[in-house]
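**Fold in tokens:**
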Amino acid sequence: MGRMGFGWSGSRIESAFMWPGGVDSAYILIQVVVGQADSVAKDVAAIKGLGSADAVIGPYDVIARADASSLDALGKLVVGKIQDVEGVTRTLTCPVVRL
């Protein structure tokens, strides 16, 4: 793999957070409407595929841990489930890398 975490394998690009047959994990940083961090954290925690979701203090209001079978599945979880929760205004997905 290259210095940036990406490497070539045949005609496709592999990244440090894509493991064949493995589970992709990520932390999702979530900003919410003022006063809704607790309810958003509870709603997000109930989504299948998420290990945890906690309200936090700082520029983000909720941090969730997700595990998915692929990077595509992780994207579908964030876009199709987390961003649909009422009160969510923005997400930032941070894939876990195994260096």
In short: The domain at 21-95 is CATH 3.30.70.920 (Alpha-Beta Plaits). The helical segments are 37-45, 71-80. The beta strands are 6-9, 12-15, 24-32, 50-55, 62-68, 88-95. Confidence is low (pLDDT under 50) at residues 1-17.
